[in-house]
Amino acid sequence: MKKRIIILSIIIISSIIIAIITNYADTGRVSTGHEPKYCIKVVDQDGRKVTYWGLGYKVIRYVGVSPDEPYENNIGVKMGNWLMQYELPIDSQYSDKKDREIHTLDDFYSTQLTQNHDIRNLGKAYSSFDAEKDNCFVIGAMLHNEKVYQEFMENYKNGKTAFIRVAQNTIEGDLILYDILYYEKTNQIYLVTDNTRDEFSANRNIEFMQFENMAEYEYETQLYWVLYNGEMNDEKFHAEDIFIVTTIN
Question: What stretch of H or E contains 146?
Fold first, then answer.
C-alpha cells in the first residue's frame, strides 16, 4: 500500500513539473507570435477557431482564411486555463455595425478576415513562391493550395463570410494577385486586383470591384471561375460586368 502511495505521489509530482515546464515554454512561444508546441490541436467544424489543449492551459486562435495558414497570420489569439472562454469582437454588436458596409479599399481591409492581409503592404518582389508559402491559391503549371479554394467556395455556397487570395503569373512571368471576399452581411462579393507587378500591363494599379454572384461556369468546353452581376449566360460571358478570375481545368 505504501509503495502504491509513493508511486502515485511520484506520478502526481512529475505531472505537475511537466505541466509547469510546458506552460512556461508555450507561454513564451505564444507571447512571441509562435504556435504552442506541447498541446493537442483541435479545429472547430467551420475551421474558424483552433484550440490548443495543454496540461492545465489552452490557447484559442482565430484564423483569417484557413487553419492551415501560418500561425502568425492569426486574427485573434488568447491563452488561459481550461475554463477560459474567448470570442472575437466580430461577434459583438459594435463590430456588427462597424463592419456592415464595404465601399472602398480601406473598408475591404478593415474586416476581421482581411485586416492582416492588406495587399497594399506587399513588396514589389513578392512572388508566386511567397504566395504559396502564405497559403494563397496559386495557379500556374500546377495548382498549389487548392484546398484553400475548395474551402472558400464551400463557405460561399453555405453563405459564410470567406476570404481568399489568388496568385497567378502572366505569360511573361509577372505576378498578378486577386483578393476576393464574400461578405455574408451584405451577400456581396468584393474583389481587389493588383497588377502592379505586371510590367506589360497598361493598367498597373490596385482596383476595387463589387459583384453580386460567383460561380464555376462552363463556356465552350472550358470551366471558368467567374464573378458577375445579374444572370449568367454564354451571350453575356464577355460583358463588362463579368470578371474571369481563372480557368479551373
Answer: helix 146-157
